[in-house]
Amino acid sequence: MDPTAHQHVQLNAGADLQGFRQAVRIMTWCDIAPERIGWSTRAEQGLFGNQAPAAYGAAGKPITLPRRTAETIRLVVCHSDPGKYDQLYRLVWRVMRKEYELLTPGDEVIQRLALMEADVKRDLKRMHDLVRFRQVDDAKGDERFVAWFEPEHFIVEAAAQVFVDRLGSMDWTILTPKGSLRWDRKELWAGA
Question: Taking the chain, what is the end-to-end CA distance rounded to the nearest angstrom?
Answer without folding.
Answer: 37
